[in-house]
Amino acid sequence: MTANTVHGTSGEYSPGSTAARQARERLERERRNRAAQLIVLEGPDEGQPDETAPGRLDTLRRTLEEIEEALGRLEEGRYGLCEGCGKPIPEGRLEILPYARFCVVCQQRQRGRA
């Protein structure tokens, strides 16, 4: 598969498919990594207080929620489709950010609204 290949409309992420299984593995690995980071940040603080910790905690919790939502989309057969335009999200984007909800164009539009 090339970097320009996209998924979604052809059912490559349909439950039980190889692509869905690989996406699940990426998401679960990401969830484990983020959960471990959260445990470290929530643990007892030894030394100087970290003033950035509350913001990082919020970001980690939000990312974990996004991962859970992506796992739900995977189960429902909606994984890999942009929530903005409905088009497939490029595979390269999903490899880098497996819980992506939007293609790059729609993500930029979302940021413009924030």
Q: What's this entry about, in short?
A:
By secondary structure, this protein is mainly alpha-helical. It contains four helices and no strands. It has one domain: Four Helix Bundle (Hemerythrin (Met), subunit A), CATH 1.20.120.
What does this structure look like?
- The structure is a single chain.
- The chain is an all-alpha fold and 114 residues long.
- It has one domain (18-43, 51-113): Four Helix Bundle (Hemerythrin (Met), subunit A).
- 57% of the residues lie in helices and 0% in strands.
- The chain has 4 helices and no strands.
- Helix 1 packs antiparallel against helix 2.
- The longest helix has 25 residues, at 18-42.
- It starts with 17 loop residues before the first helix and ends with a helix.
- Residues 1-10 have low confidence and may be disordered.
- A zinc finger (dksA C4-type) spans 82-106.
- Residues 77-109 form the Zinc finger DksA/TraR C4-type domain.
- Keywords: Metal-binding, Zinc, Zinc-finger.
Number of helices: 4
By DSSP, the count of extended strands is 0
Give the overall average pLDDT.
85
Tell me about the largest β-sheet.
none
Report the CATH superfamily: DksA, coiled-coil domain
CATH fold-type name: Four Helix Bundle (Hemerythrin (Met), subunit A)
Task: Give a topology summary.
Elements: H1 18-42, H2 53-76, H3 91-96, H4 104-113
Helix pairs in contact: 1-2
Which descriptors would you attach to this protein?
disordered N terminus; 4 helices; 114 residues; flat; Four Helix Bundle (Hemerythrin (Met), subunit A)
